[in-house]
Amino acid sequence: MPDIAVIVFSRGGNTRKVADAIAAELGVPVQDTNAPLPDGARLVFPGSGGYGGKPGEPLMQFIGSGNFSGRKAALSGTSGGPEGAKHMMAEMREALLGKGATVIGDFSCRGKFLFTNRGHPNDEDLANARKFAREMAGSA
User: Is 116 buried (19+), middle (13-18) or exposed (0-12) by CB count in 10 A?
Assistant: First the structure.
């Protein structure tokens, strides 16, 4: 599915695991935020870890420099807690809407942070990420 792009910023590797699961389910590679947005991508899966309740700055810069007009976006991320994920997703959603994207869904799960959430994302989290990927690709 070359019309799908999975883009990730992940410091600790948690969000990268989620992005890898999404990309593998859809048969596409994962790209980091330093690569350009593929011209033919109709559906974009931007993902970030939560850093103080905010998405990583490299992902926000990627969104800010991209042309998302006419594209659909399905957000993903990991966070130490549900409130952080909620704020992070809202910031990503707002930035993408401002760049012309249609946001069709979001997925987040816990990610290991210091001594909390050890073992996350776990197998169940990654299975849920793959299910999310299928649902989003089916509705795009």
Answer: exposed
Tens of each residue's pLDDT in the chain, 140 residues: 459 999 999 988 889 999 999 999 999 999 999 999 998 999 999 999 988 889 999 999 999 999 999 999 999 999 876 676 789 999 999 999 999 999 999 999 876 655 555 666 889 999 999 999 999 999 86
Nearest to 52 by CA among 11, 16, 13: 11
- Alpha carbons 59 and 139: distance in angstroms, whole number: 24
pTM over cut 0.85 = yes
The two three-digit tokens of residue 36, written as one number: 């350009």
Domain covering 4-139: architecture: 3-Layer(aba) Sandwich (3.40)
Cα 70 to chain centroid, rounded: 18
Strand duo 102-110 + 54-55: pairing: unpaired
